[in-house]
Amino acid sequence: MDHSDVGGAWADGGRPAITLLGVPLEIGAGTPGCLMGPAALRTAGLAPLLRNLGFTVHDRGDLLAPPAEPSALAAADAARCRYPGEIAAWTRLIHDTAFAAAASGDLPVFLGGDHALSMGTVSGIARHCRDAGRELVVLWVDAHADFNTPATTPSGNMHGMPVAFLTGEPSLRALLPDRPLVPVPAGNLHLFGLRSIDAEERERLREHGIEGTDMRDIDEFGVAALLRERIGPWRERGVHLHVSFDIDVLDPSLAPGVGTQVAGGATTREAHLIMEMLHDSGLVGSVDIVELNPFLDERGRSAKLLVELVASLFGRTVLDRRPARVRAF
Predict the structure, then answer these.
(1) Domain boundaries 18-313, corresponding CATH code
(2) d(Cα 182, Cα 161) in Å, to the nearest integer?
(3) Is 272 among the residues known to form the active site?
(4) Structural domain boundaries of the chain?
(5) Annotated catalytic residue 69
């Protein structure tokens, strides 16, 4: 089979070019090493694989760390966070880069880096969608909810706060003080693959009406049924779907290269099915791949698996998909 025959997604508007943007950010996490994530994904062959699928790929390299600046957060909030001034500088840089990448017409894939980078990527994409008159939906594929605030964080690590920031948490607004922030409505953000949520975080999710799918749901009902009920309404509305994929959604026995391991994660087959269904939806307009820590990996296992999953997201399948299967008896 010729895997370059992707089909399915983007069928009406043609296949977009893909822009790869490395974001070597690691200070949002508690364990150093994520800044090597973009290089590991490139070494594992991400760009050639996408080209073999028939895409034009523009690799724009890595962003350079911006100069640190004084924290813009309130003093009490800044005191509870690690590197708030540096995260604010990164957020502004990533926001501007994501906004420009989306406006170019390419499909941006942001290579992380820890999940704090999504404060910039999603806010930049949200701003572009507002200007373009598109509805944005964010699928947060992650073992964690990342909905902490300076007041609730048990660690001070800001990779646990991007969902709160993106939905308009006032105590974090100063991380992007001089750019328009377009908050993502609670109903347009879904957490998928959850299995570790802090107690106060759980209460905040309930109060804000943010829905999630945890591993119990996946065990009981399966990936296909759960994603299908989400994708159907999104397709009817023709949304721009931003997929933020954290490697820790996978079971650590499969992907050890992550600093926030939680046992009981998704299997390889479940993860590929997630990606294949998202591709088939035709809605994916931007992507984060985050939290890969090569320092903790085993001979590149995690990076190689992530590259294979990105290939599934962009259309690689074992067999050509048919609109419906006919079962013969």
Answers:
(1) 3.40.800.10
(2) 17
(3) no
(4) 18-313
(5) no
Out of 26, 95, 106, 115, pick the active-site residue. Answer: 115
CA 120, 122, 123, 127: dihedral to nearest 10 degrees? 130
What are the pLDDT digits (tens) for 163-203?
A: 999 999 999 999 999 999 999 999 999 999 999 998 899 99
Question: Is 246 one of the annotated active-site residues of the chain?
Answer: yes
Taking the whole predicted model, whether its pTM rises above 0.85 is answered as yes
228-277 pLDDT, tens digit per residue, is: 999 999 999 999 999 999 999 999 999 999 999 999 999 999 999 999 99
Catalytic site includes residue 248: yes
Considering the candidates 270, 291, 297, 308, report the single residue annotated as catalytic: 291
Tell me, yes or no, if 114 is annotated catalytic. no
Candidates 225, 243, 237, 327; CA nearest to 279 is: 243
Annotated catalytic residue 58? no
Q: Tell me the average pLDDT across 48-61.
A: 97
Q: How far from chain centre, in Å, is Cα 140?
A: 6
Strand runs (DSSP E) across the chain, as ranges?
A: 18-23, 57-62, 107-112, 136-141, 189-194, 211-214, 240-246, 284-290
